[in-house]
Amino acid sequence: MAPLCPLDGLARPRHCGGFAEVLHAFDVALPDLDIDRITRYALQLDAATAKRLGWVLEQLGIESPPLSELPIKGYRKLDPSGPNSGSHNGRWMIRENLPGLVAA
């Protein structure tokens, strides 16, 4: 079983080496992640973290429809410790505020 630090890093990336490290951790841990379990855990945290998880999983080619349907008011920053800039992703209600990230 993979550690939950990648998921915890979606809420507080500065405690896990920054958002780039969190994304890398998901990429490395993906083969060992129990997607259903990590999704249930994210839903217990908060809607913003769950939306970030859905965005990350989608980037890694994993579909997570229940997370995209989760209601949330307003856009949340993808990197909560990052700048208040970037494109708005309406599917995830995420402001894609990562350096070098180009909207599709």
Textual characterization of the structure:
The protein is mainly alpha-helical. It has helices at residues 5-11, 19-29, 35-45, 47-59, 65-68; strands spanning 76-77, 87-89, 94-96. The chain has a 3-stranded mixed sheet with strand order 1-3-2, with helices on one face. The protein is 44% helix and 8% strand. The chain is built from 5 helices and 3 strands, in the order H-H-H-H-H-E-E-E. The longest helix has 13 residues, at 47-59. The mean pLDDT is 86. The protein has one domain (5-96). Helix 1 (5-11) packs antiparallel against helix 2 (19-29) and helix 3 runs antiparallel to helix 4 (47-59). The radius of gyration is 12 Å and the shape is globular.
For the record, the count of structural domains works out to 1
Structural class: mainly alpha
**Helical content, roughly?**
40-55%
As laid out across the biggest beta sheet, the strand order is: 1-3-2
What's the pLDDT, averaged over the residues?
86
Low-confidence stretches: none
Q: Gap between N and C termini, in Å?
A: 33 Å
Question: With helices defined by DSSP (H or I, 4 residues minimum), what is the helix count?
Answer: 5
Q: Over all CA atoms, what is the radius of gyration? A: 12 Å
Gross morphology: globular
Main pleated sheet: 3 strands, mixed
